[in-house]
Design brief:
Blueprint: E1 7-11, H1 17-24, E2 30-31, H2 43-46, H3 55-59, H4 66-71, E3 81-85, H5 96-103, E4 107-112, H6 115-128, H7 136-141, H8 143-149, H9 164-173, E5 177-181, H10 182-187, H11 189-200, H12 225-231, H13 235-243, H14 248-257, H15 268-287
Parallel strand pairs: 1-3, 1-4, 2-3, 4-5
Length: 301
């Protein structure tokens, strides 16, 4: 059996890819590598944009060459569905020919989220890592400047929340594509997981033992040594992840839950300004690409 991925969760960041990774990896017919977000097929692109705070430190964990990438899949045994969860792939259609050359016609899953909520969750992620110092509104206005300065694409809050061109490019390049809105998945996990398992051609009635757990929750947390360590990147943290005798992500989520604060709410005025910005993209998703946006806010206004 060829030990390379035959399906990708290709995007997008802050749309539930971490939780999806942890649910799917429990299925006995699915193989996922120990590290989520290898970003091998976008490594050359992402490595050119590491000028934002701690961008370079994050980038160094990606698979830089084929040998490194293939090593993650050397442990594949009898699993039917072999996956790569790297949310950057959807944003860079120039990597699709390389994916097809190396992996063939893989199945592609794309996770989307109400674009304003996704952008704000992205912003709060960088705030809790102590990388983002601006207000959300200021950060959105600085997006183009930051791009010119070589910041990583994770700082592109608005760009990562525009989906229609990305979904269309994926559908044009790959034969089997499944698009799932984050909100629909959260509201109906069991049926949505069944859809995914059927899409992957594996046992569809499997229920992950951790289905009620939530991973990589957004929002804000108390600022202390524990939360700073768990939200950061360090060799010590990497060592602990390798040797700890329990699922590290579950362990992390349980510890962080003790320090979680109420999420700061977006101002109504900010939402009113952003709705027209995303309106045409959202309506195209619905009308041309058939994406179920029924659980998103109203973008018709």
């Amino acid at each position: 059996m060829k030990k390379v991925p035959n399906f990708l969760i290709a995007g997008l960041p802050k749309c539930g890819t971490t939780s999806m990774h942890h649910y799917l990896k429990h299925h006995p017919q699915i193989f996922l590598p120990s590290q989520k977000e290898l970003h091998y097929f976008t490594h050359d692109i992402l490595s050119k944009n590491v000028q934002g705070p701690r961008d370079a430190a994050v980038n160094k964990y990606h698979a830089a060459n084929w040998d490194q990438y293939a090593q993650f899949y050397s442990f594949v045994d009898k699993e039917i569905a072999i996956g790569d969860v790297s949310p950057s792939y959807a944003s860079y259609p120039e990597c699709f020919p390389i994916i097809k050359e190396k992996l063939g016609q893989v199945k592609v899953i794309v996770l989307l989220r109400d674009p304003i909520n996704r952008a704000y969750s992205n912003y709060l992620h960088l705030v809790r890592e102590k990388r983002e110092k601006l207000s959300f509104e200021q950060a959105m206005s600085e997006e183009e400047n930051r791009q010119k300065q070589g910041y990583s694409d994770f700082w592109r809050y608005a760009y990562n929340s525009t989906y229609s061109d990305k979904v269309q490019a994926i559908k044009d390049s790959f034969d089997e594509v499944l698009v799932i809105p984050f909100e629909l998945f959260v509201a109906d996990k069991y049926n949505q997981l069944t859809r995914i398992f059927k899409f992957l051609g594996i046992q569809s009635d499997f229920i992950p033992p951790n289905i009620e757990e939530r991973f990589n929750e957004g929002g804000t947390y108390q600022d202390n040594a524990i939360t700073s360590f768990l939200h950061g990147h360090s060799p010590v943290k990497d060592f602990i992840k390798k040797v700890i005798p329990v699922d590290y992500s579950s362990f992390k989520a349980k510890i962080l839950s003790k320090f979680r604060k109420a999420n700061p709410q977006l101002q109504d005025d900010t939402i009113r300004k952003l709705i027209p910005f995303f309106k045409s993209d959202v309506l195209r998703l619905k009308k041309e690409l058939g994406v179920d946006i029924s659980l998103w806010r109203d973008y018709n206004g």
